[in-house]
């Protein structure tokens, strides 16, 4: 898969993950895209680790794996950055 495919898959996965995750997220579109691409990579590695096929193309299976990774990445992002604006 080329870099353009990873970016497009990350866009789709990041948008779906942001829609699935409850609550208000303060990050914008650029951060969501980056988290989506990181999530696609994380999802692919986790899938390979479990013995499944990784993210290998722009298909439904890859979108599901990348979205699961993006949701995980969003939870990690929220845990890391969640306490910065409290108390202001």
TrEMBL record:
Keyword Electron transport among record annotations: no
Highest rank taxon of the organism: Bacteria
Keyword DNA-binding in record: no
GO CC aspect terms: plasma membrane
Keyword annotations of the record: Cell membrane, Membrane, Transmembrane, Transmembrane helix
Transmembrane segments: 29-51, 58-80
Topology class, membrane: Multi-pass membrane protein
InterPro entries according to UniProt: Transgly_assoc
Record's subcellular location: Cell membrane
Membership in a protein family: Belongs to the UPF0410 family.
Protein name: Uncharacterized membrane protein YeaQ/YmgE, transglycosylase-associated protein family
Organism: Cnuella takakiae
Top-level taxonomy: Bacteria, Pseudomonadati, Bacteroidota, Chitinophagia, Chitinophagales
């Amino acid at each position: 898969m080329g870099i353009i495919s990873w970016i497009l898959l990350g866009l789709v996965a990041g948008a779906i993950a942001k829609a699935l995750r409850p609550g208000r997220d303060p990050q914008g579109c650029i951060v969501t895209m980056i988290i989506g691409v990181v999530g696609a990579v994380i999802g692919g590695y986790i899938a390979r680790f479990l013995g499944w096929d990784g993210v290998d193309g722009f298909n439904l299976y890859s979108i599901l794996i990348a979205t699961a990774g993006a949701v995980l990445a969003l939870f990690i992002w929220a845990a890391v950055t969640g306490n910065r604006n409290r108390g202001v």
